[in-house]
Design brief:
By secondary structure, this protein is α+β, with helices and mostly antiparallel strands. Helices cover 51% and strands 13% of the residues. Strand 8 and strand 9 form a beta hairpin. Helix 6 runs parallel beside helix 16 and helix 13 crosses helix 17. The longest helix has 55 residues. The protein starts with a helix and ends with a helix. Bound molecules: adenosine-5'-diphosphate (ADP) and magnesium ion. Adenosine-5'-diphosphate binds next to strand 10, strand 12 and strand 15.
Length: 696
C-alpha cells in the first residue's frame, strides 16, 4: 500500500472503522441512521460512544469536543477530558452515549441575533452522525448541530441539514415520476479554497493585517499579476513543503485534498478537494481552513484567508461546486439515454428557476464586509447573479426555449441534440470565468462566495430553492398519466426555461454593458452587503424557508441580525484601525520625513546659498500638502465614525457604512498611499506591497 493509502482517513471514525469496531447489529442500525435518516436510539449511541472512545484513546486522544458552527461561521469547540475519577484515587476513561449525542456548552457568548435571551444562556449540541468524528490535536471532535433550549437552530449546520432533507424529499418525488425507487438524494459540494501565504515577519509589522485580516493601506506594487507568471507557476520550496504537509494532515483527517496550485495573484494559492455530500464537505472545508492557518506558522508563513488582503491584485474566493446526487448518480450529468436526459432537463430547468427566483438570496449568502471588496471588481463575478450555460448546453436551452410550435419536430431535434450532449459536454472546458453561476459539465459552480465564508449558507439556499422547483414540478406532474408524462414534462421544461430566460447570460460579466443589460432584464444588482442583506427578511424569503421547514421566521431574523452586526462590527474595527494607524504611524512618519528634508534644505542653503533645491523643495511641499490632506480626510472619517455609532438601527448603520463611510476611507487610504511612494524607504513605517508580495 502506498503511504497515502495507509494514512488516508486514519484519524477518522468513518464507515470502515465503524464496521471494524462496532458489533454488527449496532453497525447496521447506525447505517440506517446514516443512509436513511432513521432516528438513533440511546442503546446504539452507548455502544458507538464506547467504541469511539476506545479507538480515540488508542490514537492518543485524551479529550473530546462537540465541534459546531455558531452563527459567526467559525467552528467552536470546548474540550472535555474522558477522565472519570473513581473512589480509589484512580481514574477511568469514560464516554457515554448521552455525552456523544448531546452536549451543553455555555452558549451565552455566541451570536444569536436575539434568539436566545442571555438569561436562557443554555444551548445544546446534538451529534450529527452523517459527518464523521475525527481526531485533531489529541481531541476527539464530534461534528454537532447547535440549538437553543426551544430547539431553534443557533448554528449554520442545522438549516443546511434541513435543506438537504427538503431536497431529498422533493427529488424523490420527481424521481418517482421517472419510475425510480425511493433513494437517498443529497446535494454534493466541492469547495475550492483560495488563500495567500506571506512571511510571518512582514505580517507582524502590519497591524492592519493582524487586526483586520486585510491591508488598509498600500500603494500598488511595481509589478502585480499582469505577467500572469504566478498562475500554475512552479511552487516555491517553502510553500511546497507547506502544501505537502497540509495534504498529509488533511488526508489523515479523511479530507480528499486533490488539487493544489498557485493562483493568479502573487503569493496566492488554491486547494481543491474532491466533492462530497454537502454537509460533510462544509465540515471538511472548515477543517481545511483551520489546518492551513495552523500549519503555515511552522514554515514561518502566515495564511491569509481574507477575501481581499491586498488592494490592486486579486482577492480570494471559494468556488462552490454544487450538484445533486441520488445514490451516487449525478442528477446534473447530461447522460446519454433520452429518458434520463429528460430527467436531466427537468433538474436543469429546476436550477434555472431556483437561481432566478432566489437570485437575491444567493447574492445575500455571499455578502460580507470582506467580500464587498471583491464582488464586482474585475477579478470576481459581479454582484449580479446570472447563469452561464456554456456553448453546447446553451444551444440546447435555446432550442427548447425557441421551438414553440412544432412539437414533433422539436422533440426529435431535441432528442438528437441531447443524445449528443455527453460527448460535447464531457470535453467542454469552455469556462466563463466572469460568470457567478456556471455550468461546468456536470455541476454548477457558484463563484460568489468569499474565501472566509462558511458555505452552509449558500448551499442551504440553493438546496431549498431547488426543492421548491422540484416540488412545483412534482405537484403539477403527479396527476399526469404515464403515457402523457414525457410530453407534459418536456412542455413544463420549456415553459420554465422560457419564464426564466433572463437569468441566462453567456457573455462577459466584467463588461460595462452587462450591468445596464441586467437592469433592463430586471435582475438585481445589490452592490454592497448593506444592500444585499435585507432580502433575507422579505416575505418571499420567509415563505420559502417556512415552506420547507428550513428556517422559521425567528431563525431568519436572527441570522439577518447577526450578519448585519458582523458587518457593522467589522467596519467599526477597520475604521478604528485606520484612524489609529494614520495618527500614530503614518502621519508621524510623514512629518518626520518632511522635517528631515526641511533640515536638509536649510543645511544645504547654509553652505550653498544659490543651490538648486527644486527637488527637495517640491518634495517638501508635496509632503506638507499630503499630510494636510490626510488630516482633512481623517477628520471627516472621525466625525462620520462617531455619527455612525449613534445610529441604533443596524440596517441604517450598515447603509451609512457602505455608502458614506467607505468612500471616505478610500480617500484617506489614497492620500496615505500617495505619500508611501515619495517617502524614503527607511522612513516608511511598514513593509510595502513590493516587499510583502515578492518575498524570497
Ligand atoms: P476549476 O478550478 O477548473 O473550477 P477544479 O477541478 O479545481 O476546477 O474544481 C472542481 C471542483 O468541483 C472539485 O472540487 C470537484 O471535486 C468538484 N466537483 C466535481 N463534480 C462534482 C459534483 N458532481 N458535485 C459537486 N462538486 C463536484
Ligand atoms: Mg473553480
Amino acid at each position: 500500500m502506498s503511504k497515502v493509502q495507509e494514512i488516508y482517513g486514519e484519524l477518522v471514525f468513518d464507515e470502515h472503522t465503524m464496521q471494524e469496531r462496532l458489533p454488527s447489529a449496532t453497525y447496521k442500525q447506525l447505517m440506517k441512521t446514516l443512509k436513511h435518516g432513521k432516528p438513533l436510539d440511546i442503546d446504539v449511541a452507548n455502544v458507538v460512544a464506547h467504541a469511539m472512545k476506545e479507538w480515540a484513546i488508542e490514537l492518543g486522544a485524551t479529550h473530546y469536543t462537540h465541534w459546531f458552527q455558531p452563527l459567526s461561521g467559525i467552528t467552536s469547540e470546548k474540550h472535555d477530558s474522558f477522565i472519570d475519577p473513581i473512589d480509589d484515587g484512580h481514574a477511568i476513561m469514560s464516554f457515554s452515549g448521552k455525552e456523544l449525542i448531546q452536549g451543553e456548552p455555555d452558549a451565552s457568548s455566541f451570536p444569536s441575533g436575539g434568539l436566545r435571551a442571555t438569561f436562557e444562556a443554555r444551548g445544546y449540541t446534538a451529534w450529527d452522525p452523517t459527518s464523521f468524528a475525527f481526531i485533531k490535536d489529541e481531541v476527539l471532535c464530534i461534528p454537532t448541530a447547535f440549538c437553543s433550549y426551544n430547539g431553534e437552530a443557533l448554528d449554520k449546520k442545522t438549516p443546511l441539514l434541513r435543506s438537504m432533507r427538503a431536497i431529498d424529499e422533493q427529488a424523490n418525488r420527481v424521481l418517482a415520476l421517472f419510475g425510480e425507487e425511493p433513494q437517498r438524494v443529497v446535494s454534493t459540494l466541492g469547495a475550492e479554497q483560495e488563500y495567500f501565504l506571506i512571511s510571518e515577519q512582514d505580517y507582524e509589522k502590519r497591524r492592519d493585517l493582524v487586526l483586520t485580516g486585510r491591508t488598509l493601506f498600500g500603494y500598488s506594487p511595481c509589478k502585480g499579476q499582469e505577467l500572469e507568471e504566478h498562475y500554475f507557476g512552479a511552487i516555491r520550496p517553502t510553500v511546497n513543503n507547506f502544501m505537502k504537509e497540509l495534504d498529509d494532515t488533511l488526508w489523515k483527517l479523511g479530507v480528499p485534498a486533490k488539487t493544489k496550485h498557485n493562483e493568479v495573484a502573487p503569493c496566492q494559492h488554491e486547494l481543491a478537494p474532491l466533492f462530497a455530500n454537502a454537509n460533510r464537505a462544509v465540515d471538511q472545508n472548515l477543517l481545511t481552513m483551520e489546518e492551513m492557518r495552523l500549519l503555515a506558522s511552522r514554515y514561518g508563513l502566515v495564511c491569509l484567508e481574507h477575501e481581499k488582503p491586498f488592494e490592486h491584485i486579486n482577492g480570494s474566493g471559494k468556488h462552490n461546486n454544487w450538484s445533486i446526487s441520488a445514490n451516487g448518480k449525478n442528477l446534473l450529468d447530461p447522460g446519454d439515454n433520452p429518458i434520463s436526459n429528460l430527467r436531466f432537463l427537468v433538474f436543469l430547468a429546476g436550477v434555472v428557476q431556483a437561481v432566478d427566483d432566489y437570485q437575491e438570496l444567493l447574492r445575500m449568502s455571499a455578502a460580507s464586509a470582506g467580500n464587498d471588496h471583491r464582488l464586482g471588481a474585475n477579478e470576481a463575478p459581479p454582484a449580479i447573479v446570472s447563469i452561464f450555460m456554456g456553448d453546447e448546453l446553451g444551444r440546447v436551452v435555446d432550442a427548447l426555449i425557441g421551438n414553440k410550435d412544432y412539437e414533433a419536430k422539436k422533440r426529435t431535434e431535441m432528442d438528437l441534440g441531447v443524445a449528443e450532449l455527453p460527448n460535447f459536454l464531457k470535453d467542454n472546458t469552455d469556462r466563463n470565468r466572469t460568470s457567478p453561476f456556471a455550468f461546468t459539465g456536470n455541476k454548477f459552480e457558484f463563484r460568489m462566495p468569499g474565501s472566509m465564508q462558511n458555505l452552509s449558507d449558500c448551499n442551504m439556499i440553493l438546496n431549498t430553492a431547488m426543492a421548491k422547483s422540484l416540488k412545483e414540478f412534482a405537484d403539477e406532474m403527479e396527476g399526469v398519466s404515464s403515457e402523457d408524462f414525457n410530453d407534459v414534462a418536456l412542455e413544463y421544461v420549456k415553459r420554465t426555461l422560457r419564464d426564466h430566460e433572463r437569468i441566462i447570460f453567456n457573455g462577459d460579466g466584467y463588461s460595462d454593458e452587462w450591468p445596464i443589460e441586467a437592469e433592463r432584464r430586471g435582475l438585481a444588482n445589490n452592490k454592497t452587503t448593506a444592500d444585499a442583506l435585507p432580502c433575507f427578511v422579505d416575505q418571499k424569503s420567509l415563505d420559502l424557508f417556512a415552506e420547507f421547514h428550513v428556517l422559521d421566521k425567528a431563525e431568519v431574523f436572527s441570522r439577518y441580525e447577526v450578519k448585519l452586526e458582523k458587518y457593522n462590527k467589522t467596519m467599526n474595527i477597520e475604521i478604528r484601525v485606520m484612524k489609529r494607524l494614520v495618527r500614530r504611524d503614518y502621519l508621524p512618519a510623514i512629518n518626520r520625513y518632511a522635517a528631515e528634508i526641511a533640515r536638509n534644505i536649510r543645511d544645504v542653503k547654509e553652505v550653498m546659498p544659490d543651490a538648486n533645491l527644486v527637488n527637495q523643495e517640491s518634495k517638501l511641499n508635496a509632503l506638507v500638502e499630503g499630510a494636510a490632506l490626510i488630516n482633512e480626510h481623517l477628520g471627516k472619517l472621525h466625525e462620520l465614525h462617531y455619527a455612525s455609532l449613534e445610529i441604533v438601527d443596524q440596517q441604517e448603520r450598515a447603509n451609512m457604512n457602505a455608502h458614506v463611510i467607505i468612500p471616505v476611507m478610500d480617500d484617506l487610504r489614497e492620500a496615505v498611499d500617495n505619500m508611501e511612494i515619495i517617502v524614503g524607504r527607511d522612513a516608511w513605517p511598514v513593509p510595502t506591497y513590493n516587499e510583502i508580495l515578492f518575498y524570497a
